Amino acid sequence: MIQTESKYQADVLIEEQGFDDHFHDHHHGDKYQTGFIGHYVFSMDHKVIARQFLITGMIWAIIGAAMSVIFRLQLGFPEENLLWIKPLLGKWIEVTDGVGKLSPEFYYALVTMHGTILVFFVLTAGLSGTFSNLLIPLQIGARDMASPFLNMLSYWFFFLAGIIMFYSLFLNTGPFSGGWTAYPPLSALPQASTGSASGMTLWLVSLTLFVVSVLLGGINYITTVLNLRTKGMSLFRMPLTIWAFFVTAILGLLSFPVLASGFFMLIFDRSLGTSFYLSDIFIGGQALDRVGGSPILYQHLFWFLGHPEVYIIILPAMGIVSEVLAVHSRKPIFGYRAMVFSILAIGFLSFIVWAHHMFMSGVNPFISNFFVFFTLIIAIPSAVKVFNWITTLYGGNIRLNTAMLFAIGFISMFISGGLTGIFLGNSSIDIQMHDTYFVVAHFHIVMGVAAFFGMFAGIYHWYPKMYGRFMNETIGKVHFWGTMLCAYLIFWPMHYIGMAGVPRRYYSFDTFDAFKQFSDMNKFITVAAIVAFFVQLLFVLNFFYSIWKGKKMTKQNPYDATTLEWTTPIEPIHGNWPGKIPSVHRWAYDYNKDQREYVPQYIPLEEGEVGDH
Amino acid sequence: MIAQEVKMESNNFSRVNPQLFSLWVGMASIVMLFGAMTSAYIVKKGAGNWLEFSVPSVFYISTAVIVLSSVTMHAARNAFRRSQEGAYKFLILATFILGLAFLVLQYQGWSQLYGNGVDLKTNVAGSFFYLITWFHAAHILGGIGALLASVINAYSLKFKVTDHRKNRVEMLTHYWHFVDVLWVYLLIFLIYIK
Ligand code: HEM
Ligand SMILES: [Cu+2]
Question: Which domain holds residue B141?
Answer without folding.
Answer: 56-192
